[in-house]
Amino acid sequence: AQSVTQLGSHVSVSEGALVLLRCNYSSSVPPYLFWYVQYPNQGLQLLLKYTTGATLVKGINGFEAEFKKSETSFHLTKPSAHMSDAAEYFCAVRPTGNQFYFGTGTSLTVIP
Amino acid sequence: GAGVSQSPSNKVTEKGKDVELRCDPISGHTALYWYRQSLGQGLEFLIYFQGNSAPDKSGLPSDRFSAERTGGSVSTLTIQRTQQEDSAVYLCASSADRSGYNEQFFGPGTRLTVL
């Protein structure tokens, strides 16, 4: 069965500090990988995605993620947190077929 | 252009009643997904439509749940004889194709509360 694990349902960082949100997946085949962000009272929007090619992908708002096949991971990072980054972040995978599998989300709090 | 819209934004109903949730995808998007987001849970896949193909209903939790998509555009998710455990945010997303390469665009969701 496919699964997506996001370690840490809540992460707090100080403004200006490194943001690291972890995502591990189980998949029998290399999947497509996504990070979505959900700001308060808004719908989910795509931050970045990995499909093929370069394993380090850059997204909006200074976020990036690296696909590590050997570790089955797709961790999300940002060098310097901003107050506006406070949101819920979801990792998702699409192995094959129609289904996308989402993690349970990580709520990011940025402390001024 | 307009994004994915959903209506109503909030729905409060009594246990045992039927509800209908509507999704208007982005024009021209052939793929449409329904998800359920419960408190503290990730997004749970419910159903997937792609063009005129038979929908993938593998995520529907029970036969009380059904969905249709008319004319390849608007979709309606129906929950019959609602139960309290059906309370959740129901999200709709559309995508330009079935490949998964293109991102899903999400609507704002319908928050369903079953009393």
Secondary structure blueprint with pairings:
The complex is a heterodimer of chains A (112) and B (115).
Chain A (H helix, E strand, L loop, with lengths): L2 E3 L4 E5 L4 E3 L2 E3 L5 E7 L5 E7 L5 E3 L5 E5 L4 E6 L8 E8 L6 E2 L3 E6 L1
Chain B lengths: L4 E3 L2 E4 L5 E6 L6 E7 L5 E8 L14 E5 L5 E5 L8 E8 L9 E2 L3 E5 L1
Parallel strand pairs in B: 2-10
Antiparallel strand pairs in B: 1-3, 3-7, 4-5, 4-8, 6-7, 8-9, 8-10
Report on the structure:
The complex is a heterodimer of chains A (112) and B (115). Chain A is mainly beta. Chain A is built from no helices and 12 strands. The mean pLDDT of chain A is 90. With 115 residues, chain B is mainly β. Chain B is globular. The mean pLDDT of chain B is 90. Classes of the chains: A mainly beta (112), B mainly beta (115). Chain A binds chain B through residues 4, 6, 9, 32, 34, 36, 42-46, 49, 51, 90, 92, 94, 97-105, and chain B through 3-4, 33, 35, 40-45, 48, 50, 56, 58-59, 91, 93, 98, 100-101, 103-104, 106-109.
Structure at a glance:
Chain A is mainly β and 112 residues long. Chain A has strands at 3-5, 10-14, 19-21, 24-26, 32-38, 44-50, 56-58, 64-68, 73-78, 87-94, 101-102, 106-111.
Largest sheet of chain A: 6 strands, mixed
Counting DSSP E segments of at least 2 residues, the number of strands of chain A comes to 12
The number of distinct helices of chain A, counting runs of at least 4 residues, comes to 0
Low-confidence stretches of chain A: none
- List the secondary-structure elements of chain B in sequence, H or E: EEEEEEEEEE
Cα separation of the termini of chain B: 37 Å
Oligomer class = heterodimer
Distance between the termini of chain A: 41 Å
Structural class of chain A: mainly beta
